[in-house]
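User: I'm putting together notes for a lab meeting next week and I want to include a structural view of one of the chains we've been expressing. I don't have a solved structure, so I'd like a prediction I can at least talk through. The sequence is below, exactly as it appears in our construct file.
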Amino acid sequence: MSTDRVRDQQARLAERIGSGTSAVTNANAAPHLVSDLPGLGDPTIMAAWLYYHEGMTQAEVAEVLKVSRPSVANMLARAREAGIVQISVRPDYLASLTLSRKMREHFGLEQVIVVPTPPGADTIAVHRSLGKAGAAYLENSVQPGEILVTAWGAAMLEVALSLSHKPIPGLRLAQSLGGVSAADHFNPTRVASLMGEKLEAQVYHLYVPCMVESREVRDILLRDRGISSAFEVARSANRAMIGIGKVASDATVVRAGFMSAMQMEALRARGAVGDVMGRFFDIEGRPVQSELNERIMALSLDDLQRIERVIAVAGGSEKVEAILGAVRSPYIDVLIVDERTANAVTELDQATRRG
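Assistant: Thanks for the context. Below is the predicted structure for the 355-residue chain, given as structure tokens.
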């Protein structure tokens, strides 16, 4: 901190004290000034003002006040205890935190991140908010030398786009399923490539279709050394970040061209409400079997369950059933979801709970 800045802060502080004011600080807004607090010349109030209102570090406050850094920490603690500093949480964030805790405890998840939803937010805005939250989660949790598995979908693409350029040494990144010829904007290959570029990871692509013509074709492809090696890397992953798909005629798997609307209706008739990596499940999180399982080039649900930490990023009113089925399943550890959808999932859970 420069001498000029120290002098400037000391002069501003002297002016504040001379005018008979001190600070009460709110964690989410600029502190408001009050004139009825005792001890206007107390260094505790000075420290609180500089730290909370002026945004200085504890080291900078210590330099201004000519005290040690531990002394500043003690002053700030005293300021909170005496009510000089009052910290509050915005009601909308508090509601999200409360909902996160309730969902985590009820569904037995490791973590639930509920993203506050602005009033009137459309699907695109929701996906962008989820993407930012998912990117922040990855940037703060992925460790050097880990293996990360990725999937596809609009929310997953937003995660990839929202990532900062943050190289993670030794990170390997693998696709969980093959590519598609349509829906290029959220193709699994593109999502993996974008994430790999941002994190400077070694990427293991699956240059095969997501869905093939028959089980025989799938088995032949899986005997290829390059393809089988890519799947082995994916199965060895420490964590996976995936989307949750819905069962509808406009679902990603239909728009991508590897399933027809008729096939989707047949799955719906069998009780399917959603999918992860093209693997379908019902409202209770149980797998829904179909002949598609024999033709898909993707990790199995058992493979997914063996991964240490699986993070699902999903939201939107059309995904409520799918998300409920996913969090009731044993495949998801962390859920990142928007607030409106989280509330709807909770309500549907109560309405469909057995017993």
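A couple of points you could mention at the meeting. The CA atoms of residues 47 and 61 lie 6 Å apart. The mean pLDDT is 85.

User: Perfect, that's what I needed.
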